[in-house]
Amino acid sequence: MSAAGTRPVDHYENFPVASWLCPPRLRAPIAAIYHFARTADDLADEGDAPAARRLADLTAYREDLHAIARGAQPSPRWAAAVFQPLAAQIRAFALPVQPLHDLLSAFEQDVAKTERGAAYADWPELLDYCRRSANPVGRLLLHLYGVSDAQALAESDAICTALQLINFWQDLSVDIPRGRYYLPLAECAAQGLFISDPATQFAALQPDQKTTELIAACARQAGASMQKGLQLVHRVPGRAGWELRAVAQGGLRVLERVEALGAQVLRQRPRLRAGDAPAIAWRMLRM
């Protein structure tokens, strides 16, 4: 299941890769999905390439995905590292390709919004981004686990969206200086913060009562989404279900850190530490 917000593996945050809880037969397809997403994330986010080059690279990357989906050969650039392993797992597990296209659309949106210095207008716009940036990974993993009923898919989406939102609030001190503005403008306005120039006004936010209330409102949105999905742990079989418990409880623990910091999260990134493990394990058992 998606692990946005906990950053368990390297820098791509959407899911843990082949952890010891993952069923061994699923480690290869999960790793293939991970490397696809991580490489696309790098194209969108790493280095100092201009936005036009990033978008061109993501377009070429999408064309390679189209190629392997129809049984053709991808271009040499990412073939060995990404598309040949992914093609093998698409064939072996009948992986749906649309969720992978959805991920790419989210990466493209990140590039475009950062280039324009644009923020998200409201919760519906931000949640639509989560639908494409986080939810596809959960749906791909459910496919691998053989879980496909509508209720499980809805619960997976709720957990993945929650984890993505937690990641946003955890990373405000990192994202705002980089020109990524995920605090919805309508929620800002509801707390008395009227943002007309995101590039300057988000950077100038102070840890006062208004921003404290803003962070609390955003944390509540993430927590409510997580609660909608937690019954999924009883639908995912075996070791995968325990991995989902770990991811969900890890995300909730991060959210507690965000809530404890309040507006200081604008200056400091909360992290999980070794001392959090017993509490997470206990909560996993209580689920």
From TrEMBL:
<dbReference type="InterPro" id="IPR044843">
    <property type="entry name" value="Trans_IPPS_bact-type"/>
</dbReference>
<keyword id="KW-0808">Transferase</keyword>
<dbReference type="InterPro" id="IPR033904">
    <property type="entry name" value="Trans_IPPS_HH"/>
</dbReference>
<dbReference type="InterPro" id="IPR002060">
    <property type="entry name" value="Squ/phyt_synthse"/>
</dbReference>
<dbReference type="InterPro" id="IPR008949">
    <property type="entry name" value="Isoprenoid_synthase_dom_sf"/>
</dbReference>
<dbReference type="GO" id="GO:0051996">
    <property type="term" value="F:squalene synthase [NAD(P)H] activity"/>
</dbReference>
<protein>
    <submittedName>
        <fullName>Squalene synthase HpnC</fullName>
        <ecNumber>2.5.1.21</ecNumber>
    </submittedName>
</protein>
<dbReference type="InterPro" id="IPR017827">
    <property type="entry name" value="HSQ_synthase_HpnC"/>
</dbReference>
<dbReference type="Pfam" id="PF00494">
    <property type="entry name" value="SQS_PSY"/>
</dbReference>
